[in-house]
Every structure is written in C-alpha cells, then in structure tokens.
Amino acid sequence: MNNKTILLASRPMGMPTSENFKFEERDVPTLQEGKVLLKALFVSVDPYMRGRMSDAESYVAPYTVGEPIVGGVVAEVIESKIPELPKGTVVQGALPWQQFSVHAGEGLIPIDPNLAPLSYHLGILGMPGLTAYFGLLYIGDPKPGETVVVSGAAGAVGTVVGQIAKLKGCRVVGVAGSEDKIAYLKDELGFDEAINYKTTGSIKEAISNACPDGIDVYFDNVGGEISDAVYLRLNNFARIAVCGQIAYYNSTTVPTGMRVEPILLKKSALMKGFIVRDYAKDFAVAAKDLSAWVKEGKLKYQETITEGFENIPEAFLGLFSGQNTGKQLVKVAEREV
Amino acid sequence: MNNKTILLASRPMGMPTSENFKFEERDVPTLQEGKVLLKALFVSVDPYMRGRMSDAESYVAPYTVGEPIVGGVVAEVIESKIPELPKGTVVQGALPWQQFSVHAGEGLIPIDPNLAPLSYHLGILGMPGLTAYFGLLYIGDPKPGETVVVSGAAGAVGTVVGQIAKLKGCRVVGVAGSEDKIAYLKDELGFDEAINYKTTGSIKEAISNACPDGIDVYFDNVGGEISDAVYLRLNNFARIAVCGQIAYYNSTTVPTGMRVEPILLKKSALMKGFIVRDYAKDFAVAAKDLSAWVKEGKLKYQETITEGFENIPEAFLGLFSGQNTGKQLVKVAEREV
C-alpha cells in the first residue's frame, strides 16, 4: 500500500512556493493495541498554516522542517484496535498531510456522515463553524437588536459568525480587507455594514459611523488597530470573544499597544479568549444546530474542492493568489464503507 | 452653625493636588417637609474619585467644577421631616463632602449601629467589602487549591479579597507597596505570600517565584507592570476581575503597554471589568456573608482614620502615595445620640 506524506522541506521567505514542500513515501505501520489506522479523505488547507511554516517566535507552534505538515483532516478508520472507534468510523482531527496514518485516538472527533457532506466537517460543521458558534453564542451571547462586530469577517470563521448573529436578530458589522469581500458580506451574506479597513481611511471613524448605537458584541479574529477602534465604541456590559490575533502572530517581541483593561473596567465589559476544543463537550449540539441552519438555507456556505493528494501544496499556494471561493479543501480519497 | 463644604476647584492634570479643592462656608438650609438634615460622621476617600474629577467619559458622571465633591458618607439624621428616617437614625449614602446637608432620603441606607462600628459601613460592610466579594466570587470564582493574586492587596478591597480567598481554600499572593503592608498581609491576614513591588527588583521574577503553580485568579486593583507580570504566569482558564486601574487614573493620554489579548487567547482566560452596583440585586446576600465572617473572626478589618473635616483633601491625596493601610476614612464629627 502506497503511503505518501508531505513534509516541510524548508521555511518560506515571504510567499511560500512548492519548493517548501517535499513528498515522501512512508510505510504503513503495523497496528498496535489502542490505535487506529486512518485513511485521509479530505484535507483542509488554511492561511494560518503559513504562520506555522515560519519559526519566528509566535503564538502558534511552528512546524518542524523535515516533518509532515499537520492540519485539519477528515479521515476514515480502516482498521481499529480502539473499541470506541470501530472500522468505518469517520473522524475529524489534526492529522498529518499523509494518506494513511496511525493514531491513538485522542482528540479525534467522530462525525455523523448523514448530517452533511463529509467535507463540511472541515468547514461550517468543523473547526471554523464550531469556533464561530461557540465564540459568538457562548461568549458573545448576542441579544436581538444588539450590534455585533466581527473582524476577519470574510474568513471561514467570520462569515459564520456574521450569519449566526443575523439569525439571532442582531445588527451585524463586518471588517475585511477587499472590495470583493465587502460586497460578498453585504450582498450575499446579509451583513448590515461591512468596512474595508484597507481603504476606509480612519478605521475609528468608520467603526463609529457603522455602529451608531455602540457595540455589544465583538468577535475578534485579528487584534491591532481594528480592535482598538472597536474598544472605543463598546457599550456597557459588552462581550468580546478573542478568537484570533493575527496582527501579532509574526511578532517577535511582546505585542504592545492601547490598554484594553481600563475600557473593560469603565464598561463592565467581558473579554474571553478561547479555542474551539474548550467546548468539546458541546460539539454535538453545535453541529446539530449548524447543520439544521445549513439545511434550512439560513447559513450559506461555499467550498472549492481540489482533487488528489498530490495537489495539496498547489491548493495551499492558491490561497495566496485568491483562486478559491469559500473554504478550500483537497479530496484525497473516497470513503471505503 | 458653621457648614463647611469642599468643592472641586479645578480638574487635575495628572496627579491631583490640594489646588484642585476649595473650601467654602455654606448656610444650613431650613428644613422643608419630606427632607432630613444630616450631619456627616465619617467620609470615605477612594481612588475611583480621581476618575470623577476628570471630565473624560467614565462609568460615573464627572464632578462639576464649582460644585461639592460627592462620595460615600456615614451621617446621622439630626432633624427629620421624613417619618421613616427619625432623628438619631444613622445612614450611609452618596453625599457631598459637607458637614451638614439636607436630603430627600432617596438612596440613603439606614444602618444598624449595633452590627459593627459605624465606620465599617464605609468599608468591609460597604462598597469596598462588597466590591471584593463580587469581584472575587462572581468573576474570579476561586476553587480550593487554586492560586489567587491580588494587587493593591493592602487596600480596603484587597485585604478583603485575600481573606475571602483564604476562606475558600486558595493559595493567596498579595502585591503591595511597603514593608509594613507586607508584614500585615502575611502576619495578620494570613496571606501565603506578599510582594513589595517597590523593593522587589524584578516584579516578574517575584510573581513567578511566589506562584510556582501559576495563577488561576487575579483580582486587579492597579494595572500597569504588576498586571503584566501576572499575565505572564496565568494558567489555562484563568479569571481576571478588573476592579481598579490606579496606574492609569492620572494618565493624561490613552494608556498603552503590553497587550493582554494574545495571552487571554493562548490561555482561554477571562477578563471582566465591573463596579459594585452591577451586583446590586445581591447586596443583601453579600452583606450577610460578610458580617457573619467578621463576627466569626474570619475576616479581619483595618482602617486608617484621619480626624477632621479640613483634612479630607489630604487624606484623599495620600491614597496615591500609598500612605494608608486598609480603608482610608476621615472622621468628621461624633454621633449626637
């Protein structure tokens, strides 16, 4: 049985290229007690992975040169020595870019193949969708009529945040970085306002104008001056879900800037950081809600699926030239069962 | 009858000085129906009042230049045209820095003089005690065995925070600004560790050494570099109650410094600002707990009482140079009845 893997060959200088990746053939190991053999079905390629290819001191652990790239994968259990994960189970998890891999099961999330297409579990029903769901609903706790601002609004998480906030009856303002994205948020996803931070001039004024009644919930994917502009318009008892801080990921020193603490004090506001696995016990509830909303047409979701394991690097590199619309995935194999 | 009052003469630029206050003689007004004449007994001076001296937007309305300063006062009804507040009743409320004042009664809280010394109702059974109670228990939510750090530990709020945390079975570390305060926290109040931030050298090292298992709860009265040192030692799912930010109260520009957001993200930590009146509906429950703990000797309480109405500004200014241990009050008059 062939078992291709993709290693990090070298760290990119600036824009990554195919030279940064290396294909290698690996043995399929003999299965030991307490492990499963997984066949990758869909592989997720995401912009955040660019950050992990660097070794700059950062809030994201870097990949190791000479080791496989790891990311979101939907895989099928094709041999099992874990009773809870019998053969035929489909799971999602953080797995290597590798056709077959052996895993001890920890952190793998079984998925219900009847709920939605399997690929959705890397997007709207997977980490990005669940991240949006928990951050917005469990931390942001939006009430009808409140104003919700989301930064990184056109991303895999931000698009879901904004749409759920609309479902909950909120006024939704998105911040993103291109006119195409702004048009998409307003025209396709129903955001009330969307701000192109690259062209708007003063982001503080733009946020202030877009939020005449102040801001009750902020879902933050970015940090930096967009967040500072939001902080200045927070209402009393505002809630801030800190989901990403991409402004600082490549920072080699401790990030500094405006202090948020005095504002949280003045406004009796709450700020909470989180990662999706903090809410693992409620994944099933969330996936059920999300899939219902998708089926009812209340949540729009787009994906671009590239075929073939060998095309993973190309699909990843395509993210940076804007080739994809919506979530970019690679289909690696058909399900066996 | 003399009736001195203290007005806000001007708004401070940076640190307040005695120039910002003005003494004036006022008439004692004739009492009308539905009013009481109050004689101030104890006046509370508190760091938050610095904020009200500015006209920047805040959670409390700014004082008006040329009008009396208003704050927590324990006063005696010396003449009454309100049946529910007969002569001799002692009340606490938000009242002007003024020897005698006329009041319609609304918002005045009658206090039981047999429960505790009258001054306690401006401290452990008043706003500072309630602030400690709600910030620690409702936001910090400490569990037995967890590490709790409190800054401004020797203040009216901090001393109560640390003692309640000990009652809850936590390891308690206080940060304060003199050797006397450190000794008080450790020897009298049972703090596990106390750090003199003025002499410790590296506050980061001191915090790190005092918290070998990291920090689960941080009750912050101060902000600034003490907070930064705490942030670097937070455990996953830490909770931070932002109660005061005295490091910035005298700041004339937007405070900047280390960004806490990336740390909250990395640690899935929660930070919440609050003021005591956010929890008004639970005041009775809290006061019952606090007075029981005081009676059982589980909560020790210290006051610094300055004598004389004319010394109120000086007592207030002393807060910013760390002169007081425990709650700073000014005794203005003896009770008549």
Q: Care to describe what's here?
A:
Chains A, B: This is Alcohol dehydrogenase. Chains A, B: It holds the Pfam family ADH_N_2. Chains A, B: Keywords: Oxidoreductase. Chains A, B: GO terms for molecular function: oxidoreductase activity, acting on the CH-CH group of donors, NAD or NADP as acceptor. Two copies of one chain form a homodimer. Chain A has 337 residues and is α/β, with parallel strands linked by helices. The first copy, chain A, has two domains: 4-123 and 301-331, Alpha-Beta Complex (Quinone Oxidoreductase, Chain A, domain 1); 127-277, Rossmann fold (3-Layer(aba) Sandwich). Helices cover 24% and strands 27% of the residues of chain A. Chain A is built from nine helices and 16 strands. Chain A has helices spanning 48-53, 127-140, 158-167, 179-188, 203-210, 224-231, 261-266, 283-295, 312-318, and strands at 4-8, 21-25, 36-44, 70-80, 90-96, 100-103, 109-111, 147-151, 171-176, 193-196, 215-220, 234-242, 256-258, 270-273, 303-307, 327-331. In chain A, strands 3, 4, 5, 6, 7, 15 and 16 form a seven-stranded mixed β-sheet that branches. Chain A has a six-stranded parallel β-sheet with strand order 10-9-8-11-12-14, with helices on both faces. In chain A, strands 1-2 form a two-stranded antiparallel sheet. In chain A, strand 15 (303-307), helix 9 (312-318) and strand 16 form a beta-alpha-beta unit. In chain A, helix 2 packs across helix 3. Chain A is globular. Chain A binds chain B through residues 59, 220, 223, 227, 236-237, 242-245, 248, 254-275, 278, and chain B through 57-59, 220, 223, 227, 237, 242-245, 248, 254-275, 278. Strand 13 (256-258) of chain A pairs antiparallel with strand 13 of chain B.
